[in-house]
Amino acid sequence: MRTISEIEQDICVAKHKVDKAHTSSELTAAINELSHLNFELSQAEKFKASGKENAEHMAFEEIRQWANGSHAHLSQAPGYARGYKDGIGQAKEIICNILTRYFGKDEQG
Model pTM? Predict the structure, then answer.
């Protein structure tokens, strides 16, 4: 696991990419990178605050919440390519199947 300061440095670089984006695909890639880094930072902060034994459970809980959360707003969001919402829905189905396989129906929510 990377340190919080390493992740924060990458966030600064990604923010710079957002400022310098000239096309919608560059902007989307930079925003996706920021989103991933934000998730990684939250996990690192939780890991630091709660200790190693709880970090794995917390990561799975955050994934479970994402997988079971709504993504309907994506159909209204400007700049998303056609099929993006459907792709997110498919990704969530895959994650739910993995969670069910490893943790059973109760862990999935």
Answer: 0.46
